[in-house]
Amino acid sequence: MAQVEKKAGLLRKSSASRKPLKEKVVLMYEEIFAREDPAKNNPRFWEELFLMKVNLEYLEGKLESLDGDELMKIKDNINSLFQHCIQALGEEHQIRVVNALQTLCALFRGVHQKNKSTSGFDIINMLMGFDKAELRMKDLMESLDTLLCGDGSESLKSLCLKLLLCLVTVTDNISQNTILEYVMINSIFEAILQILSSSSSRRQHGYDTVVLLALLVNYRKYEASFSFSSSVNPYIVKLSIVDDETTLNGKGLVISQALSEYNRQYKDKEEENQGGFFSALTTMVGSMFIADAEEKISVQTNEAILLALYEAVHLNRNFITVLAQSHPEIDLVTTLSTPVPTTPTAPLGTAPPSVDVIQAFPSISVMSSTELPLDPNLQTSNLLITFLKYSSIVMQDTRDEHRLNSAKLCLIILTCIAEDQYANAFLHDDNMNFRVNLHRMPMRHRKKGADKNICSRPLVCAVLDLMVEFIVTHMMKEFPMDLYLRCVQVVHKLICYQKKCRVRLHYTWRELWSALINLVKFLMSNETVLLTKYNVFHLALLVINLFNMFITYGDTFLPTPSSYDELYYEIVRMHQVFDNLYCMVLRLSTNAGQWKEAASKVTLALVNIRAIINHFNPKIESYAAVNHISQLSEDQVRGGVGLKSSSAWTAGVSAVPKHKTFLWIWDFRRSK
């Protein structure tokens, strides 16, 4: 009841003997919502209004209660309110400026909330009058730019950013927000860069600034990419050419801190769930309640900061260097000696805009930023490591659409990184080794905390570990086909770089091969269900092509000849999987169905693998029969049968069918 009274602006309810007592600012709002000019009887009306504490709830509620026709009846008063708000932004008195900013925020939210189906041009007309919109928005953006770049209070700057975020996110689809055309014309990009390049401003406003820039970049992004007119989004162009090291590092620091905060929260909740009765119970019953345990330690993901990271990596090649900028790996929260307020403290009790201004992205939260103190005793980290840890958490659970989209965005960012030449250079650099402890999904055949004692390795090893982990842990009924395609493509791009640059990476390749073979096995086991939803042959072809790369060009990037032995052993050991796949694609490629062409491509891609299997299987069976052994060990296969790259392959190359895409052996190619 008290909340209702507050929303109605009541200081005292009505009774038989007394009229209801309302706040003075509410009475002034009621004059605005009347059809007459409020300044007609009181020339100082607007001056007095901005000295009053804003009642956001009442103002927004009143605007939301009016439909388009009712708003048009008081259009002149709304236009006048909007105009005087902009004029008040130039006042020296900070109370007027604060109240004007909050009133503008309420105007944008209130008008859009009720009239979501109304065209953007009509909303512009309701707010400021279409004939004067360009002038009004020019004055507004210039005032906000002056406040953001000036020496005013941090509270005012924070309110300016909140207003801009409110303006950007009032529509569900940012590209349908017609008002942003004026934000494109009157750019505040330089003000954004100034905030990111200053350590003091970045502490207070870095997060909001980075999110705001990411949203502005996405305004009609794909429409502008095909346009050659002046309507191209200027924020896209300007972000793509930023080369100031301080600014780029500042943006990277803000993103790193936001992701680190998420990782810390997850780790804290994870530790809370360890060692209790629930943990003991799940251990006793074979982890049958693992899914429930995971729900308890889930943390709200942060798509806004992921979007900012994607735009930076995708648009600006100079930002790639920021990914590798090393800094101490610390708990960011402990670095704050005094907490920074997450919302600006407005003078004289004026309330800042409500936290829900960012309506289009529910996960956007206002978090403070802090600089990273240097300590030589701390382990080194960088933005990429922080992002990989974040991704390993997000990718664990993709059951709901929200987390599925978050995992997809992580894989898209990894794809951008894997495509970049410079990024690959530092990913594979032996002189840049890091210990990356990725989070692993709990499974019945392994304990959650049973991670390997990971040594320092090039960062590409952590990326491959993350991809292998995803492949192994998401073979489920609700199969995330799109994520699997992106995951395998990331691996493919990394292998292409290794082949091109002849990088011999010391990695446990067998884990990757085993994961890929099990993936093919899963696709065949669930053929009937999956084919009704997806083209599984596209994914199968990507997997087989990966094996063909190892077979054909492995001598250019596998670390030792024994790596070839392991590859062929895995292929021969799991030959039944490839045989079954061949039977399936052969059956579908010979029928006149919708999958004929896709299945035919997989049939052709299997030539190399089938040649290896057909060459060695008879030898293995013969050796087992002669020695009366029912099951051969790996050493027996590799030694007794002659599955060795350094000897048997050179001797037996003429006995194996040759194909133009099939280069057989390590020593054979090296001898040439």
TrEMBL record:
<keyword id="KW-0472">Membrane</keyword>
<protein>
    <submittedName>
        <fullName>ARMD3 protein</fullName>
    </submittedName>
</protein>
<dbReference type="InterPro" id="IPR013636">
    <property type="entry name" value="ARMH3_C"/>
</dbReference>
<dbReference type="InterPro" id="IPR039868">
    <property type="entry name" value="ARMD3-like"/>
</dbReference>
<dbReference type="Pfam" id="PF08427">
    <property type="entry name" value="ARMH3_C"/>
</dbReference>
<keyword id="KW-1133">Transmembrane helix</keyword>
<feature type="domain" description="Armadillo-like helical">
    <location>
        <begin position="451"/>
        <end position="660"/>
    </location>
</feature>
<keyword id="KW-0812">Transmembrane</keyword>
